[in-house]
User: What shape does this take?
Amino acid sequence: MEMNSIGLIEMTSIASGMEAADIMLKTSEVELLISRTICSGKYMVLIGGDVAAVQTAVDAAAETIEYAVIDTFVIPNVHPDIFPALSGHSGIEQLEALGILESFSVASLIEGADAAVKAATVKIIEIRLAMALGGKAFCTITGEVAAVRSAVDSGAQVIADKGLLVNKVVIAQPRPELLSEMI
Assistant: This one.
């Protein structure tokens, strides 16, 4: 299966989230990447596949259970650094400048992270999704100061356009101990 696109639905209800996952898997040939509860009693389903299949699956679930939808997205041609960052730590061993994007929703944060990594030559350290975060999400990136600033601004704009930006920060010369706190 070609995996050039990801799609996500974030739901207000755990039961609706499980139903959405089932609808998505039955609607199109997609791969289930993440399906789980997230903080404050919400549920998220992340799928991958080709753009048309992912779009069809997300649309079907969102239309069927629209009353419980918090947010959705489909990202065509998702940046490959998003996958390792979603599964934990992407293997970064040394910090340059540190950028942080923080969002009120999982969906907007992933969209912002994708925009950030596409905007400049940076590396995503990790993406944390709503667990022990009160339903919020954040990502950390590293690279040269100007690149991190550009990436953070691009990602923050995507999140802010949805009205879900909590904060954005760029730390020019972070202490190395900060990396050990992130992993």
Remarks:
- The first helix runs from residue 14 to 27.
- Helices lie at 14-27, 51-64, 82-86, 106-119, 145-161, 177-182.
- Strands lie at 5-11, 31-38, 42-49, 69-76, 97-103, 123-129, 137-143, 165-171.
